[in-house]
Amino acid sequence: MTRTTDPVALNDWYVVGYAPDITADAPRRTRLLGQDIEVSRAPQGGFACREIGEDGGRTVPHVEERYGFVWVCLGTPAQDIIAIPEFSEGSDRRFLHRGRIAVPISGLRVIENFFDLSHFSFVHTGTLGGYGNAEVARYDVEFREDGTELWAVGCSFVQPKASAAVATQDTVVYYDYRIPRPFISIIYKDSLVERGRKDLIGLFIQPVEETSCVVHSFAFIFDRTNTDTDILHFYHEIFAQDRMILIHQHPQALPVSPLGEVPTISDASSVAYRRWVDQSGLEFSVLRNWTGDQMTRLGQVAGSGDAGVAA
Amino acid sequence: MIELYDYILSDDAYKARLLLSFLGLEYTARKVDMHPGREHLTAAFRASVTPQSRLPVLRDGELRLTGPLAVLSYLAMRYDPARTWLPDDAVEQAKVLDWMAFAEREMAPIGALRLARFSDDTLLAGPGAVLPAARNAMAILDDHLAGEGGGERAWLVGERPTVADVAVFGTAAVAPDAGVMIEDYPAVWRWMGRFRHLPGFIVMPGVFPVIPELVEPA
């Protein structure tokens, strides 16, 4: 695929790598919005980014390091990189890079799955949900920051093991989801270790192509007992379960037409997200003409799982 | 005391976890940061755990074993006095070893492609020649399970599940992570259904359990 021409997608910021992984000896070759790029350490400090093309390439002027990650905007930034005030709190939270995980599906579908509550009991059985407590309690959807951010607030769920830090016991866990950009979501989850404080878990999606992405993510949490490896195993279990569901989703881009699917009340956040994405004018990874009746047979759906990653 | 060096997303480590569960054996898990830490490639890991830089590694007293073939064979011979998981019969045992070798060799492309696709290592290069090799392994498995001129085989060797089934299942069950969809292999799909009903069966991330309510309506 070639670089997208979608100005809404091009003028946004995306994480393309974890800063400590990119060294003077090891620049990162990757792809963003269909454009091959190389991210490297700049001689004068910080990071540099170059588009790689048959014409010899071009320097990308908009490269920033923030929150431990390297951010790139291929166009002209329409706004600043999102603010995450908790990072400047001088916090006693622990920061963990959760590793990058590639998924051959629209990055928007990864975000939608992240804030979906109803799959917990059936996909994350034993950790984030259980068969006996599958009900999704009412929550609210709000627009904040002058309507530029979507939030799902007052979410709650009965979780057998809400984090690596807690013993296995059914507990009602409360949280809010912040979706500040179409390809970014952060969960603010009531800490079960430090009462009254929030654990943060964030997903920064690198949209590689329309139907493939790399998920960069962090945890910024209260946990004084587990090793980093213990916590990573907990997260990777959950992520691998999600990934197996995501790679079977069809269509692979995010359908935003209200005609396409039949939501229930527990999908309020998903409905709001799709309308919000639709109104943003974003085209990359979005399917506007899907009406749900173009069902393909199972084999074609299964075979399409390769399309995203294959060059 | 048995110790297992383990990574939650390792299909090979899952094979060891499965047999430990089938045999009802207690063990201590030693968690390894394969991704993103690449701990298994460090000098410290090679020196103190295994020079082979792979999982699983099983420790039982002074004994140390690396890789699913050795680990599964040892556990079956040492802790299954009934010898159902690794039969004594010469022909059956040879066939079991044949399928365990298949899991290590022919199915290796599935495991490699899966880990490469989890990280974004194949992003720019694409899966290349590995994907046809991965599909070929699944086709061989499907043909065998489909049987010849009659009913399907319930298990890879003989009339009961063996360590051959464990070794092959552990990788085949997560083949979709590598872009190899199980729906394309109907006999494999049904064999996996039987396998998931075995007493002591446990899942790994990406493998889903049989939902009990659907099996036995209340």
UniProtKB/TrEMBL annotation, chain A:
Ranges where the Vanillate O-demethylase oxygenase-like C-terminal catalytic domain occurs: 109-279
InterPro entries per record: Cholesterol_7-desaturase (IPR050584), Rieske_2Fe-2S_sf (IPR036922), VanA_C_cat (IPR044043)
GO molecular function: 2 iron, 2 sulfur cluster binding; dioxygenase activity
Gene3D superfamilies: Naphthalene 1,2-dioxygenase Alpha Subunit, Chain A, domain 1
Keyword tags: Dioxygenase, Oxidoreductase
A matching Pfam family: VanA_C
Cytoplasm recorded as keyword: no
Protein name: Aromatic ring-hydroxylating dioxygenase subunit alpha
Source species of the chain: Acuticoccus mangrovi
UniProtKB/TrEMBL annotation, chain B:
Start and end residues of each GST N-terminal domain: 1-83
InterPro entries in the record: Glutathione-S-Trfase_C-like (IPR010987), Glutathione-S-Trfase_C_sf (IPR036282), Glutathione_S-Trfase (IPR040079), Glutathione_S-Trfase_N (IPR004045), Thioredoxin-like_sf (IPR036249)
SUPFAM superfamilies recorded: GST C-terminal domain-like, Thioredoxin-like
UniProt-listed Gene3D superfamilies: 1.20.1050.10, Glutaredoxin
Record-linked PROSITE patterns: GST_CTER, GST_NTER
GST C-terminal domain span: 89-218
Protein name in the entry: Glutathione S-transferase family protein
Species of provenance: Acuticoccus mangrovi
Lineage: Bacteria, Pseudomonadati, Pseudomonadota, Alphaproteobacteria, Hyphomicrobiales
